[in-house]
Every structure is written in C-alpha cells, then in structure tokens.
C-alpha cells in the first residue's frame, strides 16, 4: 500500500530573495514548516540546492515529510524532529536595538539585496541588522514588524523563518564574510503581531571545517519565546 502525495505549485516572488536570483533560505524553511505541520512542532529543513525565483516549483507532501523540486531536481526536504529547540538567551528590546549599530553588514554586506538582513527600503525588506551584544557571545537586533509582511492569517511562518535564518549566520560573520544556509530546524511557539516589536537574538554554537553552527530566537518584550531555530551554514571553499 502506498501513500498518495499531495502536490501543489509554489512560486517564490522576487521580493523574497536572499542572494541575488535565489530564494532566502529561511523564507523557504518557514514555508516548508508551514506545509508540514504549521510550524507548531520542530521541523528540520535541508536545502540541497538554491531555490529559483518566479518559477513554478513542485511542493510535495507525503506522510511525515515534504519536498520542493524543480522538474527532476530536488531542492529542499523537510521532516519533523523530536527536539525542543531552545533560544540563545533573551536580550531586552532596547538593548537589541542598540546592538544594531555594530552590524557588520553596514560596513560591507555580501547579500545587500537579502529580504531579511539586506539594506533594502523599510517595508520592502525586513531590515534585521544583528550586532554584537556587549559582554556576551550574542548578536541581536530589534525587529519592528512591518505591516507589509502580513497575510490573511497574520505574519506567516515564511517570514518568521526568514528572521530566524540570517541572524545565525551573522553570529559568525565579519564584514563581507559569507556562507550559504544548508539546514534550518525551527519551531514556532506563538504568533507574531503585525506592527509588534521583538528581540531577535543569535549565537554561534560551533564550527566543523566549512560548517558553521548557530541558534536563534524571537522574543516578546517580556522575554517570552516566540520562535527558535538552529542552523548549519556552509562556508565557501
């Protein structure tokens, strides 16, 4: 007996790019988590290849997994994981906002067009600019949620995934340093409010050769955990 796959078509709008010409990895991860279980329990998303923009892609959901393909090419896989993703630690909003002044991407940004952390116009990009928090190994930013990312049911998981993504990389990067997201596990604990103010915090958790590891979280003003993630990045050779 086989389980029939549920297939839909996904097209990533140009707006949600990371590196020029391809989708933001966190946006894709959040989209896959939403397709699998709404992001309410932990989902691990593996990015096998860059996801093209403005292209019809096949999103397939079978039992406890989901995949995204372009023709015969597998781009992304998502599976549930029995894991309690923890945040790196709360930073109050005002302290997180002050840390933005030290954002390495303001001096030299390899992906200045990135939807999440790029230098795009307010309301178009998310402008999450994580900088170092003095006296800690954390980076943080104050995220003011633009109304331009709100869907019919509030702020979607794709936007939450994008926010959780880039900050894990910037916990490692200096100016103009770069890597590509290889894997993101995420869990969404609560809703993100349009127009709300949140602390976004990241921390490096290790390195193994070209692999860089990090964790991130979004917190309410009172420290309540809204969403958390762990990431694996692959640095260039």
TrEMBL record:
This is Thioesterase-like superfamily protein. It comes from Nonomuraea solani. The lineage of its organism: Bacteria, Bacillati, Actinomycetota, Actinomycetes, Streptosporangiales. It comes from the Bacteria.
